[in-house]
Design a protein that fits this description.
binds fe (ii) ion, 13 strands
Length: 338
């Protein structure tokens, strides 16, 4: 996958030429996967037609079915006045002035330490800026309280879980678990969540893995399914170290995704956690039908505000990395035909 160098792109200010691609009419339906990989490689080569600083607009406004913001690792602080919350506020403001999105996908570490005041500040920002969008949060390692173990901020996992579930209720999601399914405009989102407080990785129970398997089997036919998690499975998106990846259930989760992708399901797995700029391993397609997107930190990378727009069309997904503070497309787009 070609690199998307955000610094270079952001500083160049040069218009980027679009390289259109054509799908050959002789390629049969599911056999498109190999071709899609080529398409993704071409599209990933920073070929977007937009100029830096261009106003936000979906690629095909007349055909778009779902428009979502993808963000991870917000690390909302409890102090409204700290620089990090000022940055985060600017980032949300940038999203808000970009477009009316259908959903905000927040792929974990939505808070810095699962503190109540951090959730208060996050709700305040969303109240101001989300403009009716559904909020789809995931429970990351920082939201589990795990990172505060052994410090003055240590809190039991049950407290962190209760706060996350209260936030889910604010989002209109009534789940008795840390994971849940949600349908937005006919598209299914399956959100995973750790069930133990670990410092970096996640722990998914057998019940959660069985739920994932069933939800993938039951999802609407012919449509992509979005799986939201905080960490990528081990070995995916460059998550080669134990602390970078999903954890002990990486292999089982990956096998479930692969099983359904092999049956013709298109699965896009969206994660964060590693705080890496968009680059060669941000988007991977290790097997037909399964795609893994790893997001940078919405707070820390590229000066803040770095995420992506997900545009869903009847026949393809577009993932368009964008710095929402600067209002710039920062590199090429990833395209998945289905
Ligand atoms: Fe994390």
């Amino acid at each position: 996958m070609p690199a998307c160098n955000t610094e270079k792109e952001a500083s160049s200010g040069e218009p980027r030429r679009s390289t259109p691609y054509l799908l050959p009419s002789w390629v049969p339906g599911r056999a498109l996967d190999l071709y899609k990989t080529v398409v993704v490689a071409v599209q990933g080569a920073c070929t977007g037609a937009d100029t830096a600083g261009a106003a936000y607009s979906p690629k095909e406004p007349g055909r778009i079915l779902l428009n979502a913001v993808l963000a991870a690792d917000l690390h909302t602080d409890g102090n409204t006045y700290r620089d990090r919350n000022v940055t985060l506020t600017k980032a949300f403001a940038g999203v808000s002035r970009s477009a009316d999105f259908d959903a905000y996908i927040l792929a974990g570490d939505i808070t810095n330490s699962a503190a109540e005041c951090e959730y208060v500040n996050l709700r305040a920002m969303l109240n101001l800026f989300r403009r009716g969008a559904r909020v789809v949060p995931e429970l990351g390692n920082h939201d589990s309280g795990g990172t505060s173990v052994g410090t003055a901020g240590e809190k039991p996992f049950s407290v962190a879980e209760a706060r996350f579930r209260a936030f889910l209720r604010y989002c209109g999601i009534d789940s008795g678990w840390n994971y849940y399914a949600l349908e937005i405009k006919g598209f299914r989102f399956l959100v995973l969540g750790t069930e133990k407080m670990l410092n970096d990785d996640a722990d998914l129970s057998p019940a959660q893995l069985a739920w994932l398997d069933k939800e993938l089997a039951d999802a609407p036919a012919g449509k992509p399914v979005f799986v939201i998690a905080h960490q990528p499975p081990r070995g995916i998106n460059g998550a080669d170290k134990p602390e970078a990846c999903l954890g002990a259930q990486s292999g089982e989760a990956y096998a479930i995704l692969k099983k359904h992708a092999a049956k013709g399901r298109t699965v896009l797995y969206i994660s964060g956690h590693m705080h890496r700029d968009f680059g060669e391993r941000s988007f991977e397609n290790p097997a037909p039908g399964m795609y893994f997107l790893n997001l940078p930190s919405f707070l820390y990378n590229d000066g803040g505000g770095l995420g992506a727009a997900l545009e869903v069309y009847p026949d393809r997904l577009l993932i368009r990395p964008r710095n929402f503070i600067r209002g710039e497309w920062v590199c090429g787009e990833y395209c998945i035909e289905f």
